[in-house]
Specification:
single chain; Heat Shock Protein 90; Ribosomal Protein S5, domain 2; 2 domains; eight-stranded mixed β-sheet; disordered C terminus; binds adenosine-5'-diphosphate; binds magnesium ion
Length: 340
């Protein structure tokens, strides 16, 4: 009898993995920006056509890729960032799974143009639908530019699942804003032919970066937090109790330069506001945790946005206490006046 089981060809395997890594255009934007950050870029310029499906381009002035590395970069499980699973305990990069470019290349036309600073000329590498790419010499600035065209051209189900153009672009600008908050020392620009453009200076000022996203008058009211605990340092900006929103959209949580989504962190934060804000309202924050990569795990989902903490209870009380005490110190709170 012949066997019923066979190993999927790499093209099919990549397309299946793409389903998890590249859910929608914003996922591509996030992965490309994270690669630019890992490459040590100081300037990251993003341009988007429509909802990102016709074109997404991310340009950086990072270290670039060599002629040898270019074709490897789009292979699945190909990464320069880790060599084994133990490396995750001392991870300094945002990427480590080596599957973003392979996944993106399997559902689009991907063009990488790259030049390491020390080289005279650069190279372009174009690959469509995960087929073998074409390498060409080109003149270009030092750094890397990745352009994605016709996203999901061979996966019509994905295209159908996308929301309106404005919604998809909204998700992109939201994500660019959060990544800019995680890296105030990097200058970001987001260009779109018809919609508002985001630009940050890269001067390293978080308040100024919040201002670029939410407006300077809101940013001016935010309260600085910076406390070193036993395992973690918590740093960033939180809104006073009278500056609140009806959703948690304006909350950004970051760990060691990575934007994460975590209801655990959000709950610990809001616990710190205690009874100071009415129910169903939420503070505006950008909070960054700095600590050892061995104290948490980001290898929970292919998007690397979910985290599991080793000492959840300790971290939660550290955050709650820090937020509460920072609010107390920032100004006398009305509800406490009577107790003095
Ligand atoms: P990962 O980021 O997990 O390593 P990716 O598929 O995103 O996997 O990228 C594969 C590799 O390509 C990276 O490890 C890196 O060496 C290289 N690379 C990708 N983007 C860039 C970039 N903008 N600048 C320099 N190198 C890059
Ligand atoms: Mg990556």
């Amino acid at each position: 009898m012949t066997s019923a089981i066979h190993i999927l060809d790499s093209h099919s395997a990549n397309q299946i993995a793409a389903g998890e890594v590249v859910e929608r255009p914003v996922s591509v934007v996030k992965e490309l920006i994270e690669n630019a950050l890992d490459a040590g870029a100081k300037h990251i310029d993003i341009s988007i056509e429509e909802n990102g499906v016709p074109m997404i381009r991310v340009r950086d002035d990072g270290k670039g890729m060599s002629k040898e590395d270019l074709p490897l970069a789009v292979l699945r499980h190909a990464t320069s960032k880790i060599t084994n699973i133990q490396d995750l305990d001392r991870l300094q990069t945002l990427g480590f799974r080596g599957e973003a470019l392979a996944s993106i290349a399997s559902v689009s036309t991907l063009e990488i143009i790259s030049r390491p600073g020390a080289e005279i000329s650069g190279l372009s590498y174009t690959i469509t639908g995960g087929e073998t790419g074409v390498l060409q010499e080109v003149g270009c600035p030092a750094g890397t530019s990745v352009t994605i065209r016709n996203l999901f051209f061979n996966t019509p189900a994905r295209l159908k699942f996308l929301k309106s153009k404005a919604t998809e672009f909204g998700l992109i600008s939201d994500t660019v804003g959060r990544l800019a908050l995680a890296h105030p020392n990097i200058a970001f620009s987001l260009a779109h032919p018809t919609q508002t453009v985001l630009q940050t200076s890269g001067r390293g000022d978080l308040k100024e970066t919040m201002g670029a996203i939410f407006g300077q008058s809101l940013a001016r009211q935010l309260i600085a937090v910076d406390v070193q605990g036993q395992d973690w340092r918590l740093e960033g900006l939180i809104s006073p109790p009278d500056l609140v929103r009806k959703t948690k959209q304006a909350q950004t949580f970051m760990i060691n330069g990575r934007v994460v989504r975590s209801s655990f962190l959000s709950n610990a934060l809001e616990e710190g506001y205690h009874t100071l804000i009415p129910v169903k309202f939420h503070p505006i924050v950008a909070l960054h945790l700095h600590g050892s990569p061995s104290d948490y795990d980001v290898n929970v989902h292919p998007t690397k946005m979910d985290v599991k903490f080793k000492n959840e209870q300790e971290l939660a009380s550290f955050i709650t206490k820090t937020v509460y005490q920072t609010l107390l110190k920032s100004r006398p709170l009305p509800s406490f006046r009577g107790e003095r």
